[in-house]
């Protein structure tokens, strides 16, 4: 079997090994993460999370949380 006949899964595995060897594992993962799509519906999740809250309330919660992290 020549390289042109490799199954896609093997091509992918070889490419990941080459990237990791040449760029390091961390940069390989950073590179690959560009091509991973999220899951779920952010708009629905956001609407449910902030339902009934005004913008002022949301900003107040953010400021409160940020203040606790600094302390």
Category by helix and strand content: mainly alpha
Task: Give the helices and strands as they follow along the chain.
Answer: HHHH
How much β-strand is present in the residues?
under 5%
Radius of gyration: 22 Å
* Assembly state: single chain
Total DSSP helices: 4
Please give the share of residues in helix. Answer: 55-70%
Overall strand count? 0
Apparent shape? elongated
Biggest sheet character: none
Distance between the termini: 62 Å
> What is the overall pLDDT average?
90
The low-confidence runs, each spanning 5 or more residues with pLDDT under 50, are none
3D structure, described in words:
By secondary structure, this protein is an all-alpha fold. It contains four helices and no strands. The chain starts with 7 loop residues before the first helix and ends with a helix.
Question: Tags for this entry?
Answer:
69% helix, 71 residues, mainly alpha
Summarize this, please?
The chain is mainly alpha-helical. It has helices spanning 8-23, 25-33, 42-49, 55-70. It contains 4 helices and no strands.
Task: Please render the helix and strand layout as text.
Elements: H1 8-23, H2 25-33, H3 42-49, H4 55-70
């Amino acid at each position: 079997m020549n390289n042109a006949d490799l199954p896609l899964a093997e091509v992918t595995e070889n490419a990941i090994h080459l990237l990791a060897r040449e760029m390091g594992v961390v940069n390989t993962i950073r590179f690959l993460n560009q091509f991973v799509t999220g899951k779920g519906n952010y708009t629905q999740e956001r609407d449910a999370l902030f339902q009934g809250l005004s913008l002022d309330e949301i900003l107040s919660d953010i400021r409160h949380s940020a203040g606790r992290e600094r302390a």
